[in-house]
Write a sequence for this structure.
């Protein structure tokens, strides 16, 4: 029986196949100071109780892109509040044993007074994620719209690849060794029977294309990336999903998808292939435009859709 692992924190569901959450950056990672608009987002229920955490990226000062299973409005415990930190180190001093919050950021309980790198929002949307229904089109994209008074002013934001960018760019859809992607996110870095390490820092790593659309697991909806740490590369692990996947090296701002799921995953070494739900498709782009047009119309002209070539 194949096991699929959703790369989100604290979400565990069961289908005809077992599903468990995860993601972050592991292997040959480095601290990510290149993408200040990538943030760690905590989700909370109606009573203010912490549910789970994910990663994501601002594509304007008010529009935050993440995974749909993070913002899922049909989950058994649906989140009603998102709190997002944009510090490179969000929870390095958080004590998971005692629950004592990080004194430098307030993670995971609050934003510190006057902190411009911590914001809150209640407008949470998902693209129709439904516990892997319709696989491989699991619709794993989410948006968070920040209030106007919570806009995050930064020197740059993520850019979205236009519809069909990957097909137009890659001549070999099965993958080529020279096609590089960068993953960025926060969360669990490795786990073994003795020790689990979660820096809660923004980390990034290089990875390479395995398959674009020539398998039943990708089929034009997902991007298969290698999980081997060899050759200076990194991969995804359990912790928080929704982190952006950039086309190109560390300096790239061009987002082609969000970290989503995997299978055949090794829980101890964080090894195994990772899958990205693509954002460079017409349905996803139309959905993003529709949500922004309805809830933050002034942000539409700020979103950059980059064509191939």
């Amino acid at each position: 029986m194949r096991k699929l692992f959703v790369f989100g924190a604290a979400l565990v569901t069961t289908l005809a196949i077992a599903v468990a959450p995860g993601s972050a950056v592991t292997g040959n990672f480095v601290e990510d100071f290149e993408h200040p608009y990538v943030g760690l987002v905590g989700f909370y229920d109606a009573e203010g109780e912490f549910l789970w955490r994910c990663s994501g990226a601002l594509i304007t000062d008010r529009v935050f892109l993440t995974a749909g299973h993070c913002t899922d409005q049909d989950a058994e415990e649906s989140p009603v509040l998102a709190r997002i930190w944009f510090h490179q180190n969000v929870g390095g001093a958080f004590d998971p044993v005692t629950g004592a919050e990080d004194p430098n950021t307030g993670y995971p309980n609050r934003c510190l007074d006057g902190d411009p790198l911590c914001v809150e929002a209640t407008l949470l949307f998902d693209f129709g994620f439904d516990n892997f229904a319709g696989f491989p089109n699991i619709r794993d994209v989410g948006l968070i719209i920040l209030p106007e008074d919570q806009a995050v002013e930064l020197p740059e934001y993520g850019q979205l690849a236009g519809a069909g960018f990957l097909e137009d760019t890659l001549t070999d859809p099965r993958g080529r060794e020279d096609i590089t992607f960068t993953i960025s996110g926060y969360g669990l870095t490795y786990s073994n029977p003795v020790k689990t390490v979660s820096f809660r820092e923004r980390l990034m790593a290089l990875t390479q294309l395995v398959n674009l659309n020539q398998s039943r697991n990708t089929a034009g909806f997902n991007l298969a990336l290698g999980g081997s740490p060899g050759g200076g590369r990194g991969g995804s692990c359990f912790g928080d999903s929704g982190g952006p996947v950039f086309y190109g090296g560390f300096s790239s701002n061009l987002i082609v998808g969000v970290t989503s799921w995997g299978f055949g995953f090794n829980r101890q070494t964080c090894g195994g292939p990772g899958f990205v739900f693509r954002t460079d498709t017409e349905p996803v782009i139309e959905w993003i435009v529709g949500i922004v047009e309805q809830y933050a119309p002034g942000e539409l002209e700020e979103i950059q859709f980059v064509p191939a070539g």
